[in-house]
């Protein structure tokens, strides 16, 4: 960018007659291609992907991870409520 803080200015400085790609255009094209490839893969292998997701969810639920997350969330809420009560008491 020739001028600072101007996000809408073209990033290429080659002139008017030459077609040049900016870094933003190149990034958009690459990410779009990756998204299309991923969408095609998901559609083609839908049963396999959903089976892997189901197995992953079953493993998480049976490993006790949900209990650990619930316990941490409960402790956090209790500490937060007690802190609010303490600050209100002294005001």
Give the arrangement of secondary structure elements.
Elements: H1 23-44, H2 46-62, H3 65-89
The unreliable regions are none
Largest sheet: none
Total helical elements:
3
In quaternary terms, these chains amount to single chain
Say how many strands there are.
0
Percentage of helical residues?
Answer: over 70%
Q: What best-fitting shape do the alpha-carbon axes yield?
A: flat
Order of helices and strands: HHH
How many angstroms does the end-to-end distance come to?
Answer: 53 Å
Mean pLDDT: 81
Q: Round the Cα radius of gyration to an integer and report it.
A: 26 Å
Beta-strand residue fraction: under 5%
- Which structural class best describes the helix and strand composition? mainly alpha
List keywords for this structure.
flat; 0% strand; 91 residues; single chain; mainly alpha
Question: Quick gist of this model?
Answer:
With 91 residues, this protein is mainly alpha-helical. 70% of the residues lie in helices and 0% in strands. The protein contains three helices and no strands.
